[in-house]
Structure formats: structure tokens, C-alpha cells
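Need a sequence for this fold. Nothing fancy.
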């Protein structure tokens, strides 16, 4: 399973560049506004993916399930640096325990970001210390859960009068949807046999 995942990744030497794989859809929804660069860390530990639950008091995406990550700051060398920095800030993940594996395709969001997903292995010994002002919980989901088509739910939502196709996964009381689910869909599509 991990071997199939590694084959699906863009190599570290060839990071993806904007626009995102969903650029046409996002342009229809939000126009040609500038997309701010962001990065997330898709951490794998013992064939499980690491997720966070954002605290309820945050001004955006409160209470939602997400990968650790955020905006690329001017001091960040690249998306990988941003993903590692954000993971340290949000969940206390020491970068010494992280081995980057590769990238997925960039994803554009309704909120005007262009996210670069960084996939990495997290050592079993790594400890998570969630920042209480940002992260309410850290939890893990087996990669096999996402590979089972029965766990993918599709639905349509209305966004400013337009029908928008969405996907979600429900795992032990957690709803994984929005940009996080879209990133997972990109991973699943890239893992499909050619």
C-alpha cells in the first residue's frame, strides 16, 4: 500500500506549481483572484494519516478536520519548509521525526489559497503536542480506510447559486470534507493503476 502511494507522488525534486488541478472550477466560482500560497503536511505513521481538528473559536474553518498546515510565509524557503514549520507550530511535530516523500498536485480553495500538499513519513516515536489555540485534537486514520470506495460519500452543495460537487469521509465521528477531502481524492486518483 505504501509502495503504491510512493509511486503516486511527484518527486521532491519536482514540486508542483500553480495553477491547481481544480483551477477551472475555482475560476468559475471565485474568478481570477490571486491565490495565496499555502502548504499542508500529509503525514503517514504506521500506514495511518495524521489529521487535526481545528479549535471551535478560530475565525476560519473552526471545528473542521484538516491536515496540519497554513500559509507560506516570506521566510519559508518553499512549500516543504512551510508544511514543516506549520506542523511544528500546530501539533508540536519535531521535523527531525519527519521524512519527506513527495508531493501531490496543487489544490485551489474557495478561500483563495493554492495549497501544495507535502507527503511525508512520520516516525513512530514522534509525539504530538497540539497548540491549544489552534488545534483541539490530533487523530489518525488508516490509509486503507480511504482506499475502500465504500467510505467515500459524494454530494452536491449550493455555492452562490451554483451546484458544487463535493466529497466527504466519515471516520469515527469525524467528518473529513472540503479541501481536505479534495486532497485525499487527488491522492486516490493518482494511486489508481494506469
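Here you go.
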Amino acid at each position: 500500500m505504501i509502495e503504491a502511494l510512493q509511486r503516486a507522488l511527484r518527486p521532491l525534486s519536482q514540486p508542483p506549481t500553480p495553477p491547481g488541478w481544480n483551477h477551472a472550477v475555482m475560476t468559475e466560482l471565485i474568478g481570477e483572484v490571486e491565490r495565496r500560497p499555502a502548504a499542508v503536511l500529509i503525514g503517514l505513521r504506521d500506514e495511518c494519516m495524521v489529521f487535526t481538528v481545528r479549535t471551535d473559536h478560530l475565525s476560519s474553518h473552526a471545528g473542521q478536520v484538516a491536515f496540519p498546515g497554513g500559509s507560506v510565509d516570506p521566510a519559508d524557503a518553499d512549500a516543504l519548509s512551510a508544511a514543516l514549520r506549520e506542523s511544528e507550530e500546530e501539533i508540536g511535530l519535531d521535523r527531525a521525526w519527519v521524512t519527506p516523500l513527495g508531493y501531490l498536485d496543487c489544490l485551489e480553495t474557495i478561500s483563495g489559497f493554492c495549497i501544495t500538499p507535502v507527503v511525508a513519513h512520520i516516525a513512530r516515536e514522534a509525539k504530538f503536542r497540539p497548540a491549544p489555540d489552534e488545534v483541539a485534537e490530533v487523530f489518525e486514520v488508516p490509509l486503507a480506510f480511504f482506499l475502500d470506495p465504500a467510505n467515500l460519500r459524494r454530494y452536491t452543495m449550493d455555492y452562490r447559486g451554483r451546484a458544487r460537487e463535493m466529497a466527504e469521509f466519515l471516520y469515527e465521528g469525524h467528518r473529513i470534507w472540503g479541501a481536505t477531502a479534495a486532497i485525499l481524492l487527488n491522492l486516490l486518483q493518482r494511486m489508481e493503476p494506469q
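For context: The first helix runs from residue 2 to 8.
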